[in-house]
Amino acid sequence: MIPVASFLPSAPSWSLDWDGIDAAYPWIAALRGSAHDPIHHREGDVWTHTRMVVSELVADAEWRGLPEDLRLAAFAAALLHDVAKPATAKIEMVDGIERVHHHGHSRVGAVMARGILWRQDFEPRLREIACSLIARHQVPFWAHEREYEDARRIVADQSLGSGNRLLAILARADARGRVCDDRDMMELAVEEYREIADRHECLDRPFPFAGERERFLYLSRRAELDPRYPIGGPADRPELTVMSALPGAGKSTWIRTNAGDRPVVSLDEIRRALRIDPSKPQGAVIEVGKEAAKEHLRAKRSFVWDTTNVTRDMRERMIGLGVAYGFAIRIVALEAPQRELHLRNREREHPVPGEVIERLVAKWEHPGPSECDRLEAPALGPAPELAHLPIPAGSPGP
User: Measured between alpha carbons, how far is 28 from 23 in angstroms, rounded to an integer?
Assistant: First the structure.
């Protein structure tokens, strides 16, 4: 598959190769002809809107002033921002008008985009910036309507993902790339979003959290606190390490090298002991693993929870227990390029069926800083650096 980077426009012409893009990606066929809501998208189908959004982004002086890597991340996000609309479309009659809704398309689209970009060997750091943009691309349109604390939490969280300025740039292109009666109001909402982020000192940098614990508890809504001030608490709390990786990404190697004498609860080992095929239901495996984990939790003993944990819900099942028992939470997220991952898997003593890996890729949600005290994702580099965006030439300011 031709990488998205091959189609990134550049100076001086900033021209878009639409014929090349159209021929390169089979997922475009689903967007073409996919119905849009007649009120919010009079311009036509999802692919028509996508082309308009990408064109608006590429014409934006602020986007052009960004470093090339961030231009690429935003370009990929614009191209893929509505990729899940065909899969999430629901049609209903409202006051005699056929309305089209796409509830959840941002979140589902981020997951789909992750798989698409991973298969292209898209740089992981930029892939996750793009996926963060896709997951939140509608947020600037309504964040200003939220109460003070909710709005602050939104921009604080995004400051550790794509950064708030980059999200505002994409949202502005999304507003301009459509035909509707309230487009001017949408653009105004985006500018208000910038002002909220600037007010909370995180338009172009990470929000100033007092520390890891304050950031985790605040973003996950596990405690009511002002995250700019330390909350105290024991410095020697036991630690739950939650692994998150596709099969073949290197979890076992990381554990051998880094876990030391900490006990490991491995669902792979439990599965083999119970003689349960990895392609079959895993309820019994998970229950045995949870009971083993609870023994360590009750004993206040640091340990490693070793399974794929590729979705937020999967991780939360154990993280919630860890927090309840007073543990610090660390997530270790590992990955490998597609070809390398499948090669490693084939060379394992107990390879995972290819169809199982594909099912996991289809629901892969990379861990974020709202899920833990400490996130280690070697492929991404230091997570806070994602949000240190230079102010581009042509920027209108906050």
Answer: 9
Query: Nearest 5°: phi and psi at 90?
Result: -130, 130
- Tell me the C-alpha distance between 319 and 328, whole Å: 9
Q: Are residues 154 and 286 in the same domain?
A: no
Domain that holds residue 278: 239-384
Q: CATH no. for residue 190?
A: 1.10.3210
CA distances (Å), origin 331, targets 217, 295, 315, 326, 377: 15, 20, 9, 16, 8
Q: Is 186 helix (H, G, I), strand (E, B) or coil?
A: helix
Assess if residue 37 is contained within a domain.
Answer: yes
**What is the strand order of the sheet 328-333 is part of?**
264-266, 303-306, 239-244, 328-333, 374-376
d(CA 56, CA 176): 7
Q: Are strands 239-244 and 303-306 parallel, antiparallel or unpaired?
A: parallel
State the Cα angle at 34 between 52 and 32, rounded to 5°. 60
- Statement to judge: residues 49 and 125 lie in one domain: yes
Write out pLDDT tens, residues 354-392: 999 999 999 999 999 999 999 999 999 875 444 344 555
Alpha carbon distance 326, 289 (integer Å): 19
Residue 316 identity (one-letter amino acid): E
Written as one letter, the residue type at 175 is A
* Residue 18 CB coordination number (10 Å): 12
* CB contact at 8 A, 110 and 206: no
User: pLDDT digits over 129-155, tens only?
Assistant: 999 999 999 999 999 999 999 999 999
Could you tell me the two tokens for 231?
Answer: 């909350």
- HEC string of 122-148 equals CCHHHHHHHHHHHHCCCHHHCHHHCCH
Residue of 83, 58, 67, 82 whose CA lies nearest to 8: 58
Number of domains the chain contains: 2
Give the bridge partners for 92, in sequence order: 99
Q: What is the pTM of this model?
A: 0.94
Compute the radius of gyration of the chain from its Cα atoms. Answer: 22
